């Protein structure tokens, strides 16, 4: 019998992995963004109730392996998963995508948290936010001297000083140039997510001489096995499922 895998998702890499999982396995999403309808595995939407709730879920559903493919900034989810796996004596594996590294010509301004972002943006007029949904909670804080462009996965109303774009990567340099020029962007705000899908914004910022306000990554728990790419994870999971099926 195949040992059940719980895949914690929320990234494009997680969806790539989920598409290879059969009906015995569970793909868990927090509930933001679009829920895929073409997966063979079970899709679970919503939280678990912290580490304690996840520990119970692992026992009740007979989960044999947790694979964490959440966003690099979803630190609380990863912390809960690590604690739950330790309590339930279940292996904890994780996809730890390498962060981007500044290149020659980059002007990165490293910050921690929303307060650091707003302080760093004070000299600028037309920032592009690529932080996901977080800026939507601050639309009533847009300074009169600024106009925000916010790109995230979900449609959301903006207002006179904020435009919200719902779009999903991968993004191309050509598309980013068009956006930057049309919106008169003078600074980019980003998380250091790593990966190729959204890296074009950094290349275009470098090309156009624009600064990037970059949020530092949070500290994530160690996993028993860590993978730098979806392909490496897929190979390990395929070997794991085959081994457990033959056991």
Automatic annotation (TrEMBL):
Going by the entry's taxonomy, the superkingdom of the source organism is recorded as: Bacteria
Q: InterPro entries of this UniProt entry?
A: Precorrin-6x_reduct
Q: In which pathway does it act?
A: Cofactor biosynthesis; adenosylcobalamin biosynthesis
Q: Where is the signal peptide?
A: none
Keyword Oxidoreductase attached = yes
Keywords of this protein's UniProt record, alphabetized?
Answer: Cobalamin biosynthesis, Oxidoreductase
Q: What PANTHER family does the annotation carry?
A: COBALT-PRECORRIN-6A REDUCTASE
Protein's name according to its UniProt entry = Precorrin-6A reductase
The scientific name of the source species is Paraburkholderia unamae
């Amino acid at each position: 019998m195949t040992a059940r895998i719980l895949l914690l998702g929320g990234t494009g890499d997680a969806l790539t992995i989920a598409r290879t999982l059969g009906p015995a396995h569970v793909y868990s999403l927090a509930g933001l963004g679009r829920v895929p309808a073409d997966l063979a595995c079970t899709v679970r939407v919503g939280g678990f109730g912290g580490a304690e709730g996840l520990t119970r879920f692992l026992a009740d559903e007979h989960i044999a392996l947790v694979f964490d493919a959440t966003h690099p900034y979803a630190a609380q989810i990863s912390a809960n998963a690590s604690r739950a796996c330790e309590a339930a004596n279940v292996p904890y594996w994780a996809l730890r995508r390498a962060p981007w590294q500044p290149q020659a010509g980059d002007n990165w301004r490293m910050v921690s948290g929303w307060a650091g972002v707003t302080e760093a943006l004070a000299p600028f007029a037309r920032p592009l936010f690529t932080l996901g949904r977080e800026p939507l909670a601050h639309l009533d804080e847009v300074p009169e001297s600024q106009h925000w462009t916010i790109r995230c996965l979900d449609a959301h109303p903006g207002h006179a000083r904020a435009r919200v774009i719902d779009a999903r990567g991968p993004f191309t340099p050509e598309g980013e140039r068009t956006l930057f020029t049309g919106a008169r962007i003078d600074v980019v705000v980003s998380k250091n997510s790593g990966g190729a899908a959204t890296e074009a914004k950094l290349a275009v910022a470098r090309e156009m001489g624009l600064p990037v306000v970059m949020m530092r990554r949070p500290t994530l728990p160690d996993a028993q096995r860590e993978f730098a790419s979806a392909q490496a994870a897929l190979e390990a999971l395929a070997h794991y499922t085959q081994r457990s099926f033959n056991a």
